[in-house]
Amino acid sequence: MRYQGLISDMTVRPATDSDRTALFDLHRAVFHGHIEKIWGWGESCQRSNFAAEFAYAITSVIEVDGQTVGYFQVLDKDDRIHVQNIAVSHEFQAKGIGTQILNGRQLKAAARHVSHFEMEVISCSNVTNWCRS
User: Fold this and answer.
1) What structural domains does the chain harbor?
2) Using CA atoms, how far apart are residues 60 and 72, in angstroms rounded to an integer?
3) Choosing a second label site near 40 at 20 to 30 A (CA), which of 2, 5, 110, 127?
4) Tens-place pLDDT, residues 117-127
5) What is the pTM of this model?
6) Dihedral of CA 15/8/1/82: which sign?
């Protein structure tokens, strides 16, 4: 799927098993500092949690000009869509990527008349701005 916004050539595709290592590396780069402050970072625990989420959530890769710059994970049920995780590499943050992804998910939920669109937000995350809009 192609998106239009502040980033001119952003695409989203389903993640494959071959993406898992690169996406975990991105997860570590984006979330390590936040998780360390809140719960403490345990590498083996984080790898295990990431593998479990990769297995049960719909994981999509965000690419800009063919480069992986992020991913998001969604639990999609008949009556609810839960954004499990969204990560955008530091150099591509604050360019509207997360907003485009979340708005797109929200539109899909509305089109399906889904009664709940949910996500959890770490308080130090940039997504708090989207939640306020």
Assistant:
1) 2-132 (3.40.630.30)
2) 5
3) 127
4) 777 766 555 54
5) 0.80
6) positive
